[in-house]
Design brief:
The structure holds two protein chains of two kinds.
Chain A: E1 3-5, E2 10-14, E3 19-21, E4 24-26, E5 33-39, E6 46-52, E7 59-61, E8 64-69, E9 74-79, E10 88-95, E11 101-103, E12 107-112
Parallel strand pairs in A: 2-12
Antiparallel strand pairs in A: 1-4, 3-9, 5-6, 5-10, 7-8, 8-9, 10-11, 10-12
Chain B: E1 5-7, E2 10-13, E3 19-24, E4 31-38, E5 42-50, E6 53-56, E7 65-71, E8 74-79, E9 88-95, E10 102-103, E11 107-111
Parallel strand pairs in B: 2-11
Antiparallel strand pairs in B: 1-3, 3-8, 4-5, 4-9, 5-6, 7-8, 9-10, 9-11
The chains are: A mainly beta, B mainly beta.
């Protein structure tokens, strides 16, 4: 069975701190994809990144970076120098041989000024 | 390009009434999804269309829910009759790359 676990329900940090959101997945598929989505207070879900199982290179996009480690089945997301606008619920998701996304429960990130 | 457009943004109705939610996907996207989000159950996939054809509706709660996609630019999700437990935010999303979903702003439904 496929599963995504985001153990951190809520994280609160002060602005400019670095913060890492954890994501652990389970799948028997050899080819799969991992995703992160952001849901700000306004409500819409925003796609952030897609990573396939054959590409373990870390990804950096501005203040955002993602660390994919197959050995630990983890796909963690780090925000460097956090800002208040980063406050949101962040979802990790997994898709395997079919189209369907398996979603984590989400981590609520609160950035205090 | 315009994103996924949903209407209405907010709907308050009474139990037993029919509710119709509408979605216009992003032009060129061949997949369309309807999701429901509640605090208790998180994000739930209700139905998935590919090239306007329903592929998987196993997430539709019961016969009171129905969805259609008459063409590539329009989809509806209908609840008849509505019940208080249907209160949720309903999201429509479209995609042309597997897993990369573009979501609408959602329709917040309250059934009294």
């Amino acid at each position: 069975a496929q599963k995504v676990t985001q153990a951190q329900t809520e994280i609160s940090v002060v602005e400019k701190e670095d913060v890492t959101l954890d994501c652990v997945y389970e799948t028997r598929d050899t080819t799969y994809y991992l995703f992160w989505y952001k849901q700000p207070p306004s409500g819409e879900l925003v796609f952030l990144i897609r990573r396939n199982s054959f590409d373990e290179q870390n990804e950096i996009s501005g203040r955002y970076s993602w660390n994919f480690q197959k050995s630990t089945s983890s796909f963690n997301f780090t925000i460097t120098a956090s800002q208040v606008v980063d406050s949101a619920v962040y979802f990790c998701a997994l898709s395997g041989s079919n189209y369907q996304l398996i979603w984590g429960a989400g981590t609520k990130l609160i950035i205090k000024p | 390009d315009a994103g996924v457009i949903q209407s209405p943004r907010h709907e308050v109705t009474e139990m037993g009434q029919e509710v119709t939610l509408r979605c216009k996907p992003i032009s060129g996207h061949n997949s369309l999804f309807w999701y429901r989000q509640t605090m208790m159950r998180g994000l739930e996939l209700l139905i998935y269309f590919n090239n306007n054809v329903p592929i998987d509706d196993s997430g539709m709660p019961e016969d009171r829910f129905s969805a259609k996609m008459p063409n590539a630019s329009f989809s509806t999700l209908k609840i008849q009759p509505s019940e208080p437990r249907d209160s949720a935010v309903y999201f429509c999303a479209s995609s042309h790359v597997a897993g990369e979903l573009f979501f609408g702003e959602g329709s917040r439904l309250t059934v009294l």
